[in-house]
Write a structure and sequence with these properties.
The protein is α+β, with helices and mostly antiparallel strands. It has one helix and six strands. The chain has one domain: Diaminopimelate Epimerase, Chain A, domain 1.
Length: 133
């Protein structure tokens, strides 16, 4: 079951909305990224806290931010944005997933034209530990 926690836009009164972090998040690579939404994704025995970011510079083409570079940015966001956010809103999850998309996509819907990067982390003792999907 997917429950939206943070959304940039709220389309229905039943959607629980919290403030979206304003402006672009700072990351080591310097690419411009913006938090799009945070979702709680309950699947069987694992709860994923999904932080979805718009990151136009990962789009294929000249000047593309590669996955290797973006991976460092995702670790930075997990520790410096996601962990404090989880603590502030008292969220409980087994994994934190940081995802970058070059354009807004609907979660769970394929978009063959979109470039997307994902990393999963286990939050332990105030740090993010890389976790293989």
């Amino acid at each position: 079951m997917i429950r939206p926690i943070v959304m940039r836009w709220c389309f229905a009164a039943a959607v629980l909305c919290f403030p979206v972090l304003a402006g672009a998040a700072e990351v080591p690579s310097g690419q411009k990224i913006v938090l799009h939404e945070v979702l709680i994704d309950d699947q069987d025995t694992v709860t994923y806290l999904r932080f979805r970011f718009l990151a136009p510079q990962i789009a294929a083409g000249d000047g593309q931010v590669t996955y290797d570079v973006a991976g460092q940015d995702m670790m930075h966001l997990c520790e410096n944005l996601a962990l404090p956010y989880v603590a502030e809103y008292a969220l409980n999850g087994d994994r934190i997933v940081i995802s970058f998309m070059d354009r807004i996509t609907e979660f769970g819907q394929p978009d063959p034209d979109a470039t997307q990067y994902f990393e999963s982390f286990r939050p332990e003792n105030g740090v993010c530990i890389w976790d293989d999907f």
